[in-house]
Structures are given as structure tokens and as C-alpha cells.
Amino acid sequence: MGKLKKKYSEGASRTYTTRNRALKKLQVTLADFRRLCILKGIYPVEPHSRKRANRGSTKLTTFYYTKDIQLLVSEPLILKFRQHKVFLRKLQRALGKLDYTRAQTLDANRPEYTLNHLVIERYPAFADALRDLDDALCMVFLFATMPAVSRVTKETVDECKRLSTEFMHYVIHARALRKVFLSIKGIYYQAEIHGQSITWIVPYQFSQQVPTDVDFRVMATFLQFYQTLLGFVNYRLFTAVNLTYPPRLDQALDDNAAGLGSLRVESRRVEDLIDARDAGLDAAATATPDAGEVAKRMGSLGTKMQSIVAADSAAPAYEAVGTAAHDDDDDDDSAAAADLLFGKQVVFLSREVPRYSLEFVVRALGGRVGWDRTSGGGSPYAENDQAITIQVADRPVQGHQFLDRTYVQPQWVYDSINARRLLDTTDYLVGQQLPPHLSPFVEYTAGDYVPEEASRIAAAAAGFEGEVTSLNPEDRDQQDSADEEETAANDVDGESADEDEEPEDDEDEETVHAEKQYQKQLLAERAGVTFSEYQQKQKEAAAKPAAPAKTRGSGAPKRTKAQIEEEERERIAISMLSKKKRKVVNRARADAYK
Predict the structure, then answer these.
(1) pLDDT tens digits, 487-512
(2) Contact, 248 vs 68, CB < 8 A?
(3) pLDDT digits (tens, 9 = 90+) for 432-456
(4) According to the lineage, what is the superkingdom (predicted)?
(5) Stretch 195-224: mean pLDDT, rounded?
(6) In whole angstroms, what is the distance from residue 483 CA to residue 505 CA?
(7) What is the pTM of this model?
(8) How many whole angstroms separate alpha carbon 505 and alpha carbon 235?
(9) Do 368 and 346 form a contact (C-beta atoms < 8 A)?
(10) SS3 for 373?
(11) String of DSSP letters for 434-499
């Protein structure tokens, strides 16, 4: 006799476990279990048979993989959570006894933990972290625009602002921006980093009302992990291009609302450090005697000049246009920037346009940006600067206009980025009715509806000049090619339109026939029929033999009203029979007709 198997020792009941059994195994509360699952990336699963997985019970419950719960047993965060609960219990007891000295001591020794090991565990390769960066960026950019309230602390908002600004600086430095789309929810961006397409959304910078029906505890757990992940990614991206991380924050510019310019991105290349040291020594030599003391101290620093390089001297985006004397490195940077979309443009942003978005996208495409002083400090260009070529405005009437620049609306910048070329500014001038802003994330396939604006932009990118509407229908393409072939044949034979021997009536009939054919094709296209299917149906219709015309008085005799009613009652009666009986009746009627 074989060994008896214990019940529920294998199969679905062994593969899956319920949430209550997981809580008993881990000895944690439901809130701590949710935090662990979010941080570890463990999600509920749906078994094939809930009854077998729940050991014969049909009660509604949540299932997890048993192996995932087994991994949580050895998680060090469980011990940290227990230590934090003990700390809260002691702190509450000290405050209850009015022992403020002990309460301050406990608060100074508050237990802390990090999530660094979880990032390394969940993303063993850097490409895996980039592939999962979309949700992290959306969450961080969302909290960076939220006001500091009781459920969202100021430290959290400041940390999200720092991380998001650092990532935007890398996108600008690497020229990685590819697509931009303005939607009702916010602004969608897409960047290509190390071969991975990363898409995220940034809310508009309006005054937001924090909703009361949102569980911020769950969102805070996600945000805590995403902040750690984005910090790892930013460090890897900055060090890969020889930039110092974290970048230095200029507190004066930050207090003056300088935006992206408040972070000083410093290079770690030896050439840049030597140039910065030489520039500092030259400036100190021509300074006052007090500055000479500073120069003497700078000469003794040697290799410690890594924290002195300023962002303005390292980034070519804010170089003056039209200067004659440049170094070799500056020439290379200017040539590389000129190859980009806005490489030869100096853009000035009026006070009514979204500066936080336009500054990012223009600089990411090689342009130089200035803005009105009411929008923030740190602008490298004033409004009356002669180097400005384009001014982005959103007011129909400008107080003063310069003749040496073009005034466009903000949509021109975004549409030019999506079209990957500088579009004609005629349709985007201030006060003009703007064309539709199409999403660059839509890919059109054969048979799909293509908007006229998308066809016009594609035709302009291909170098086509003329009416774009004639390029949309596929049937007109074939008609144009047929007309060209016919014209070429007539030229070879020496024939012309004036020597055509066909009467004008035949030409009118052909024109009417072609117009009817074109209307049929439009109706088929509106019904969702592709051009290839329409041609196949036309060929099948032409292949069928024409039915002989019926003469008056020929064919079957006309049925009376009573016969029609009798046939309808018979049809209804047959339809109410079962399938088996209906087959018998149909077979009997077929034999009767034979």
C-alpha cells in the first residue's frame, strides 16, 4: 500500500495562499503587509480555480503566490517596521508622562531605513530600471507641483522638485527629447535614453486643490520607492556623461524662481577642471589685494576644483550669439548645437506663456532661451537683446514689437518638435487661428483615417508644394498616374487635346462616370472599406454575368396578400421549433421542391 498523501499538500492550494494566511505567517498588520507588497513589487493573482486554491471554500478572498510570501519572511524591512512601532510606543508613553527630555532623546534617535537594497534587487540591470521609469517619473513630477499640506510635507515636495529638475537637466544635456503633446491632463514628454523610450506626463502649473478622497498613504509608499529609484537612475546617468552628482543648488537663483537655471551642472572632465582653475586664477590676479589672498588659496587646491565649475561655462546652451573669438571646444559645441532643431535660434518667452515647459523643450533641442524678468530671475537675455530671433507670445496685441524677430504662439514650438523640422510660422503668428495640435504618439496604418493636418505636415516634410488634399485619397493617386501615362502616350503619337476626334458628349459622359465612381469610393471609405477591398468587390461584380432583363408579364405570378401572410406565419412557426425539428422540416420542404 502506497503512502497516503496529505490533503491540500500539492496543486493549486499549495501554489496559492490567501491574504489572511500570509498575515499569520508574517505576523504583521494589514497596513504593513500592503507596504511590503508595494515596495517588493508583489501583486495579487487570480488562480484558475478559486475553489481549489481556497481549499474547497468559495468565499471571496485575495490570493498571492506562496513563493512570493515566502520571500517576505526574510525581508529586513519587517524588523524595521517593528522597531518603528516600538519607538512610537515609547514616544507616546514619554509624552503621556510629560517627560519631554526623554521624548527629545527618543526623537533624535528615531529609527530610519533605506530602500537601496530593494532597487538593486528588483532591477539587476540598468536597462530594467529605465524600462520601468515611466510610472516613477509621473509620480515624482505630480508631487513636485503639489502644495505642501498636512498629508504632503514640504520636504517631500522639495525632494520631488530636485529629482525632477535633475532628470530634465540630463535630458537637456543628452539631447534625448523626442515627442511632446499638450493634452487636457497635462504635457506628455517622450525621451529616448540608452535605447529605451521613456514617456511621462507633467501637470500644468496651476494652483491645485488636494483631493480628500485619495488614500495618500498608499501613494506615499509608491512615492518613497520611486524617489529612491529615480535617485539611482539620475546618479547613473550623470556619471555616465562625466557630470558631478548631485548638482550644486544656487540658493539665490532658486529663491528668485530661476527654474532650471538654479541647479549648477558641473563637469568632471579633466579639461574642464583645468580651464575652470585657469579662469579662476586669471580673475584673481586682476582683482583687488583681498582677492589675491583668495587666489593664493585657490592655487593650493590642486585637484579639488571639481566643485568650482559653473553651469554657464560648461553648457553651450547659453553662449552669446555672434561672438567672433571662440576656443576649439566652443566651436565644436556650437557646431553640434547648430545641427539640432533650435540650434541657431534664440527664443524669448513672454510672461504669459508656460515658461517651465518651453524652456525645457527649447534647450533640449539646442536652443537658447531668455524670459521676462517678471517670470523669474536668471534670464541670460533681455527682451531688447538683438540676438533674439523668435519671441513666443500668447497675447493678440503686443505693446512693442521688434522688427528683427518673429512673434509666434507656443504651439509652433511643440508642433515643430513633433514634425522634426521648423514649420512655417504663417499659421502660428500671434492672433492667427491655430491649426489642430495632433498627437505624435498615434501611428497611422493602412485604412486608418489620417487628419488633413497630419497629411499636410508629412507632405511639407517630404518637400511637396501645392494642394495637400489631392494626396489623401488613394484612388486619386492611381488616377493621376493613369492620366500621366495617357498624356505621355499622346505626346509620343503626336496627338494633342485639340486634335481629339471624340465628341464632347462622350467626354461629358466619361466625366460624369468618373465623378460617380469617385463618390462611390468616398462612401466606401466612410464605411470603413479599404481601397484594396473595394477594388476586389468591383472585380467580382464585373466578373458576374449580367442577369437577363425581365419583360413585363414574364416570371412567377404575383402573390396575393393572403399568401404572403400564410408564408409569414409558417416562417414564424418554424423559427419557434427546436434545432432538430427545424432541420427535419427544412429537409422535408427541400424534398418537396425537388
Answers:
(1) 555 554 544 444 444 444 555 566 66
(2) no
(3) 889 899 889 988 887 778 888 888 7
(4) Eukaryota
(5) 89
(6) 20
(7) 0.66
(8) 79
(9) yes
(10) helix
(11) PPP---TT----TTS---HHHHHHHHHHTT--S-SGGGS-HHHHHHHHHHHHHHHHHHHHT--STT
